[in-house]
Write a structure and sequence with these properties.
Order of helices and strands of chain B: EEEEEEEEEEE
Strand content of chain B: over 45%
Number of helices of chain A: 0
Number of strands of chain B: 11
Oligomer: heterodimer
Largest sheet of chain B: 7 strands, mixed
Number of strands of chain A: 11
Largest interface: A-B, 22 and 26 residues
Helix content of chain B: under 10%
Shape of chain B: globular
Order of helices and strands of chain A: EEEEEEEEEEE
């Protein structure tokens, strides 16, 4: 069965303290991995799509990388406004047109 | 200029009632979705429509019935509401059904008492 597992569940950082979030997946024949950010009371907001191992994408203080089994979201010198839940998602092996989401990593950045 | 808008934002109702949630997108996308986020924060797909045609229908009780009058609108009607239906329901859209990033609305928090 396809699985998407995110770790850690929660992460508390001091402002400026860089860290990484992990998303591991068991989908065979990956057809894309998506990262989203979700703020409380809001819908997920699209951040990145990665398609092949070795690919990297950057946006401000966020950088997403992809290997054959996992993806990392690196947060460099975070600010309080980076506090959110970060979700990763992949299309399941047996189906197009839908995404299987991980449970997310809740990040809190304190001043 | 909200891209994907849902109404209502909050819905509190009693068991056994019937309720509807409406969704509209102004992005010109062909594909729309309903996702459910439960108390453990997992997002799970319920339905997807592509150009008004149902393309994904997950294992969802038939009390849930989606309707897409046109490709910019997708509504969700729920009959005979149960306590377990309490969750946040998200509408989303994408340019097409294959590997496109989803654009989500801000959700409808349904509470069944």
């Amino acid at each position: 069965e396809d699985q998407v597992t995110q770790s850690p569940e929660a992460l508390r950082l001091q402002e400026g303290e860089s860290s990484s979030l992990n998303c591991s997946y068991t989908v065979s024949g990956l057809r894309g991995l998506f990262w989203y950010r979700q703020d409380p009371g809001k819908g997920p907001e699209f951040l990145f799509t990665l398609y092949s191992a070795g690919e990297e994408k950057e946006k401000e203080r966020l950088k997403a990388t992809l290997t054959k089994k996992e993806s990392f979201l690196h947060i460099t010198a975070p600010k309080p406004e980076d506090s959110a839940t970060y979700l990763c998602a992949v299309p399941p092996t047996d189906s197009w047109g839908k995404l299987q989401f991980g449970a997310g990593t809740q990040v809190v950045v304190t001043p | 200029d909200t891209a994907v808008s849902q109404t209502p934002k909050y819905l509190v109702t009693q068991m056994g009632n019937d309720k509807s949630i409406k969704c509209e997108q102004n992005l010109g996308h062909d594909t729309m979705y309903w996702y459910k986020q439960d108390s453990k924060k997992f997002l799970k797909i319920m339905f997807s429509y592509n150009n008004k045609e149902l393309i994904i229908n997950e294992t969802v009780p038939n009390r849930f019935s989606p309707k897409s009058p046109d490709k910019a609108h997708l509504n969700l009607h729920i009959n005979s509401l149960e306590l377990g239906d309490s969750a946040v329901y998200f509408c989303a859209s994408s340019p097409g059904p294959f590997n496109s990033p989803l654009h989500f609305g801000n959700g409808t928090r349904l509470t069944v008492t």
